[in-house]
Amino acid sequence: MADQDYRINKLISAKSIAARVESLAKEISTHYADSEKLIVVGLLRGSFIFIADLVRELDLPVEVDFLEASSYGNKKVSSREVRILKDLRGEIKGQDVLLVEDIVDTGHTMQHVFTLLQSRQPRSLEVCALLDKPSRREVEVNIKWLGFEIPDEFVVGYGIDYAQRNRNLPYIGTVS
Question: I need a labelling partner for 15 at 20 to 30 A (CA). Which of 50, 57, 135, 157 fits?
């Protein structure tokens, strides 16, 4: 992009992401093998590519729903004020629910959304995140399935954006 005033350096290749998504799906499918149905809740917008790839690899009945929460806007740093911009369309009470997030940073968004969903009394509620930055954690978050732990760098690609750009990159890159 000609007007882009930053560089993107590849951190995790598309091939590595695909392999990890496949192995995560196998672990999740095994864990929920006895479940009647798994409701996979994607946190928009960043998780949309990850969730699409993940659910295609799951070997069990799934329902997909989305919730949009924001604490970033167009900034590189979380405001720590979590706003729900789009809520679930379906009921999760008594259901097995997998919350899918693109990246866990400070943990504020994940903690807020997890607490919100837990209040709706699902049978079970677990978290799957593509990326984790534990060095930035401010609140405790329990990630059952994790793709990759990354350093404290701002990343884009594979659904993750900076000011609504670079979501379409097939890999994860750092912004400099």
Answer: 135
Active site residue 105: yes
Q: Which CATH number covers residue 126?
A: 3.40.50.2020
- Residues 20-40: pLDDT tens digits? 999 999 999 999 999 999 999
Give residue 159's region: left, alpha or beta (phi > 0; psi -120 to 50): left
Domains in the chain, number:
1
State the pTM of this model.
0.90
Expressed as residue numbers, the domain containing 51 is 14-152
CA distances from 102 to 52, 91, 92, 106, 147 (A): 12, 23, 21, 13, 9
Choosing from 53, 96, 102, 105, which is the catalytic residue? 105
| Whole-number Å distance between alpha carbons of 114 and 2 | 39
Contact 60, 33 (CB under 8 A): yes
Residue 48 resides in a domain: yes
